[in-house]
Amino acid sequence: MKTKLIFLAVLFMTILNIKAQCNPTITSPRLGVKFPDKILFCNTETEILSTQAFGSYQWYKQEWTWQTPNNNPWTAIPGAISQTLTINGNDDQLYYFKVEVTQGDCTAESPAVMADGFAYGLPSMLSTFTPGTFQQVGEGEYNICAGASVQFDDVFPDLYGSHVWYRCIPNSPPPSVGDPCVINGATGDTYIATASGAYGFYACTEYCPDQCEFLGSGNFVKLNFGNFESCILATDETKRKENNLKLYPNPASQFLYIGKESDKTYKEISIIDMSGKVILQKSSHRFNEPIDVSTLTVGNYIILSKDSEGNTYKNKFIKK
């Protein structure tokens, strides 16, 4: 009899312990399809988040930011006190979501998930020039030394799938059969130009194949190849070093520091936007001097830094 009582007592305590445990998680149809812990929208469609059955629920949301850690507050969503929560691609992109639940005397929060989307990622093109082989002669127009090349990259390679690259501005995108502006066989997210033309692309998102975008004629880059007086082909003398020059903070909102103490000074610092336009340039820059970037538009930039020995460093920088 004593043995039975001990067994029942242990069983009773085990049941109470199970009831007291509450470890909520969030599930939804799109969660993790492309990236872990993310829900990706194609447009303004809706998505239903759900968690396990508990006694009570309260859903929260937090706005996304570039900063780490994210210091934006978690806000309780009014009326979101059921087992499910419906979100949409119009109002809820770039937010994190979590749910707090109670079960008996247990209270717990789920891991957060993020609602992201491809609808906001309009096409953008990065132009990479070899130092000493180009000169800007107008808005979006460059003279390129004969024998050099210019590399064009889709800024969002994870977003877009198959591309159509153009060598001139088409009359009516999407591309049509026989369009003379289309570069046959160029379907990747990178194209290297070696001939004169106006370059841009049309591409469809990989995750949302029905969503296609045209770069826009105003964002095409015109290249003129030739033997220009300004040409200084320094390919043999210039060593391009990728990602080994210190930039901090990155992202930055007001002041940016470029360089390392061993280099002391830099002959030239150039900040280039996504269209390849030089928007800020400084000579005789010291490694410990701040560069004011507060007036730059939020986005991605390339920084070319030439040290006292003529080496050129290429780094990416984010303005927030």
Question: How is the topology of this model organized?
Answer:
Elements: H1 2-20, E1 38-41, E2 46-50, E3 56-63, E4 75-76, E5 84-88, E6 95-103, E7 106-109, E8 113-117, E9 125-129, E10 134-138, E11 141-145, E12 150-154, E13 160-166, E14 190-193, E15 197-205, E16 212-214, E17 221-226, E18 240-242, E19 247-248, E20 255-258, E21 265-272, E22 278-286, E23 290-292, E24 299-307, E25 312-319
General description of the model:
This protein has 320 residues and is mostly beta strands. It has 3 domains: 21-117, Immunoglobulins (Immunoglobulin-like, Sandwich); 125-231, Immunoglobulin-like; 246-319, Immunoglobulin-like (Sandwich), CATH 2.60.40. The chain has one helix at 2-20, and strands at 38-41, 46-50, 56-63, 75-76, 84-88, 95-103, 106-109, 113-117, 125-129, 134-138, 141-145, 150-154, 160-166, 190-193, 197-205, 212-214, 221-226, 240-242, 247-248, 255-258, 265-272, 278-286, 290-292, 299-307, 312-319. The strands form 6 sheets. Strands 1, 3, 4, 6, 7 and 8 form a 6-stranded mixed β-sheet that branches. Strands 10, 11, 13, 15, 16 and 17 form a 6-stranded mixed β-sheet that branches. Strands 18-25-24-21-22 form a 5-stranded mixed β-sheet, with no helix packed on it. Strand 24 and strand 25 form a beta hairpin. It is flat. The N and C termini lie far apart (72 Å). The model is unreliable at 1-20 and 232-243 (pLDDT under 50).
